Amino acid sequence: MPDMTATNALFPDDARVDDGELVLGGVQASKLAREFGTPLVVYDEETLRNQARAYSAAAPGALVAYGTKAFPSVAVLRLLAEEGLGADVSTAGELEFALRAGLTGERLVVHGNNKEDALLRGAADAGALVVLDSLEELDRARDAGATRFLVRVTPGIEADTHEAVKTAHHGSKFGLPPEDAVELVRRLPECEGLHLHVGSQLMHFGASLMTVDWVAQFAARLRAELGWTPRVVDLGGGLGVRHVLEEPAFTVAEFVGGLVGELRRAWQLQALPEPELVLEPGRSLVSRAGVTLYTIGGVKRASAATTYVTVDGGMSDNPRPAMYNARYAALIATRADAEPDGAYAVAGKHCESGDVLIERVELPRPQRGDILAVPVTGAYTLAMSSTYNAVPRPAAVLVGGGGARLIRRRETVADLLALEV
Q1: In contact, 194 and 219? CB cutoff 8 Å
Q2: Which of 195, 209, 212, 248 is surrounded by the fewest CB atoms within 10 Å?
Q3: Where are the domains of the chain?
Q4: Do 25 and 48 form a contact (C-beta atoms < 8 A)?
């Protein structure tokens, strides 16, 4: 992919090529690799802020709560909070990250299909909005001191996405079937509203719009049966991102604008007062902001059809290809505008045949020591990373204005051994 003009849709807003080298946030990729080592996940501040502002512009007055699971980072949470965003958390650990970033209860949404007592107590202490996920959870949440609630309902809508990230289908482990949701609202008339989330990595509008229509009809039912009307509707997140140019893509304005317009239309159709809106984007805020830099270790022809480029990371820092068949693009950072000489497979260093990050990508002839840049890796890479093969997890830096700041130090083997007893 020699032409950055053709590939800038995959790279951060502040990325460019100067004298043949990829520059991120005003810093040369080779300089980042030398200073911080590789693998290294580089986050672009400009892209993070632009994505946050796009959500605020598309849904004025809504609470936009960053889906922390995409990349738990105090620095990123703090930056997004500066743009007016809150946080969606699902464990005591994620809640602590949000609190360390300075977020307070009015901007915190607490999830989880098996909330630990510590999470419920922490949510209550912070004054956060607790999304109830089962009938039995109500008493536990009240006993913990929680006072603000939403009810998560499962509409039975199948999203067009990977099976592992569908969340609103019949039999989902998340939320309550409609009849149980009615019963929970009956027991909790002070409940503020409803929550739905159809799934993640959504590249089509259909299921999301169906969900909006469904919740309006469900709210009308609750009004008719219980005399209760939701003041808040949380539509979750889910906007997908493209990882290769062949995939479709929607802007935040297109996706969120469609949801807001359909919510307004559906609520008017049911003669319901328009509710406050909560959105929970994760991937679409941080994914394109992130680029992973690897050092190439070697090039090996495995067959007439396959030549492997091996890198110093792999499925431990990015498990998505192995878990979800995710596809990625790449370029050689110091020859970003060079013409490719062939197609290569990019393999990680782990003892698994499935540790292949990219099955096919065109590159100029790779050499040992080259820096390989893989874009759109800001979400669910470090967040889902492991220490498989006792490989320490990478560092992360935030770049902007020609400078780079370490926001997550590299793990060491000493860190791993410190857990041994």
Answers
A1: yes
A2: 248
A3: 4-37+289-417, 45-285
A4: no
Q: How far is CA 64 from CA 84, 216, 256, in A?
A: 8, 20, 11
Angle formed by the axes of helices 117-126 and 137-144, to 10°? 50
Summarize pLDDT for 45-85 with one digit per residue, the tens: 999 999 999 999 999 999 999 999 999 999 999 999 999 99
Residue 271: exposed, middle, or buried by beta-carbon count in 10 A (0-12, 13-18, 19+)?
A: exposed
Top-tier CATH class for 45-285 = alpha beta
What pLDDT does 201 receive? 60
What is the C-alpha to C-alpha distance for residues 120 and 142, in angstroms, rounded to an integer? Answer: 9
Distance CA 121, CA 123 (A): 5
Neighbours of 3 (CB within 10 A): 11
Q: What is the CA radius of gyration of the chain?
A: 22
The span from the CA of 118 to the CA of 116, in Å, is 5
Question: Which position among 304, 351, 390, 414 bears the catalytic label?
Answer: 351
In this structure, what are the phi and psi dihedrals at residue 21, rounded to the nearest 5 degrees? Answer: -115, 140
Q: Which CATH superfamily is domain 4-37+289-417 in?
A: Lyase, Ornithine Decarboxylase; Chain A, domain 1 (2.40.37.10)
